[in-house]
TrEMBL record:
Keywords: 4Fe-4S, Cytoplasm, Disulfide bond, Iron, Iron-sulfur, Metal-binding, Methyltransferase, rRNA processing, S-adenosyl-L-methionine, Transferase, tRNA processing. This is Probable dual-specificity RNA methyltransferase RlmN. It holds the Pfam family RlmN_N. Residues 112-342 form the Radical SAM core domain. The gene is rlmN. The keyword Secreted does not apply. Specifically methylates position 2 of adenine 2503 in 23S rRNA and position 2 of adenine 37 in tRNAs. S-adenosyl-L-methionine binds at residues 173-174, 205, 228-230, 304. GO terms for molecular function: 4 iron, 4 sulfur cluster binding; metal ion binding; rRNA (adenine(2503)-C2-)-methyltransferase activity; rRNA binding; tRNA (adenine(37)-C2)-methyltransferase activity; tRNA binding. GO terms for cellular component: cytoplasm. It comes from Coprococcus hominis.
Length: 361
């Protein structure tokens, strides 16, 4: 075999490891050719799967039976609704979805004046061990495929009949611990032949994996990067986030600066306020000092209590005071409204409940 043939062979072998919904357009075109079909079929399939967001290959009415059989053989992974909770307070919908292998995950639809936003999961479980997070209690089960991230959005559109315009990758899982599938997901959801969701309307949040943040910056995407900072000092951060033992705040600030330089996008700093642990005026002053020359924005969120952990949500007064101190120091800051508080707002809680009481669903 000459080198070119070898490369083509490796390419198709790699593509065949993906399910149809996880293939980017160019990969789908190679696959279509490999199963002996004309090139225009790739566009048809891509539009059915990603623009229309169909649940089942059988719905492709203009695609020949033989090709549908090939697609089924290749597989089209996605999610299926198990249950849905609707908040009486603000109309937020929380979905529990089942994957083909029986694992379950959560996605949340939030309705805002500017459009519908969906918070998706990127892994089944998480191995990062953050102290206040329900998603990590059972550890990491597995990474989600790009198809399984995409179908959380498509399924919500199918179920509600409403368009989704914003995506936050802030559900269960550490997206940068599932890096390649995350990038594949972003490229497909942004493809103009599919849902064509602007990269500017996508936010990816991470607990702070420095090498992957650098890699993300080098992709030069125009997504928003959110860093879960939660403390201005290494000492306090280590108490809340085990990953802080690996990467220091100084390294995080350096890579966030790099992210801004490469992409021109301001970084969001997530700060979940835990009573007496990171919500004192001293913490606020230190945070202001740390972020004074960063091109960023702070998002404060009083922590959502979970029953497995002992810590408390900051009181309203401390939250307002924290915000006031940051503002006085010219730091851009907002308090994130906690959506769907009446329906287990803390991410991972519904999935845990389901795992604990499968038979009642
Ligand atoms: C669930 S994580 C998923 C994204 C990514 N793994 C991360 O940590 O940024 C999304 C955000 O929710 C925060 N979070 C987790 N549990 C929380 C809780 N009980 N209350 C408030 N925020 C929480 C995280 O710290 C993070 O900022
Ligand atoms: S906060 Fe994020 S990184 Fe930490 S355990 Fe939860 S999902 Fe994982």
């Amino acid at each position: 075999m000459v080198q070119e043939e070898k490369d083509m062979f490796t390419e198709i072998e790699d593509i065949k490891k993906l399910d149809i919904r996880s293939m980017m357009f160019d990969e789908l075109a190679v696959w279509v050719k490999a199963v002996g079909q004309p090139a225009f079929r790739a566009k048809q399939i891509f539009e059915w799967v990603h623009e229309k967001g169909i649940a089942d290959a059988e719905e492709m009415t203009n695609v020949p039976k033989k090709l549908i059989e090939e697609i089924k053989k290749q597989g089209m992974h996605g999610v299926e609704e198990v249950t849905r909770l609707v908040s009486k307070q603000d109309g937020t919908n929380k979905f529990l979805f089942r994957l083909q292998d029986g694992n379950v995950l959560e996605s949340v639809l939030m309705r805002y004046k500017h459009g519908n936003s969906v918070c998706i999961s990127s892994q089944v479980g998480c191995r990062m061990g953050c102290r206040f997070c329900a998603s990590t209690i059972g550890g990491l089960i597995r990474n989600l495929e790009a198809s399984e991230m995409l179908d959380q959005i498509y399924a919500i559109e199918r179920i509600t009949g409403e368009r989704v315009s914003n995506i936050v990758v802030m559900g269960t899982g550490e997206p940068l611990d599932n890096y390649d599938n995350l990038i594949r997901f972003i490229r497909i959801i942004n493809d103009e032949r599919g849902k064509n969701i602007s990269q500017r309307n996508i936010t990816v949040s991470s607990c702070g994996l420095v090498p992957q943040i650098k890699k993300l910056a080098d992709e030069e995407l125009s997504i928003t990067f959110a860093l879960s900072l939660h403390s201005p000092t290494d000492e306090d951060r280590r108490k809340l986030l085990p990953i802080a033992n690996k990467y220091s705040i100084a390294e995080l600030m350096e890579v966030c600066r790099y992210y801004f330089e490469k992409t021109g996008r301001r970084v969001t700093f997530e700060y979940s306020l835990v009573k007496d642990e990171n919500d004192t005026p001293e913490h606020a002053y230190k945070l202001a000092e740390l972020l004074k020359n960063m091109h960023g924005h702070v998002n404060l969120i009083p922590v959502n209590p979970i029953k497995e952990r002992e810590y408390c949500r900051s009181l309203g007064d401390s939250v307002e005071k924290f915000k006031y101190i940051l503002e006085k120091k010219d730091i851009n800051v907002t308090i994130r409204r906690s959506m769907g508080r009446d329906i287990d707002a803390a991410c991972g809680q519904l999935r845990r409940k389901y795992e604990e009481a499968k038979e009642t669903f």
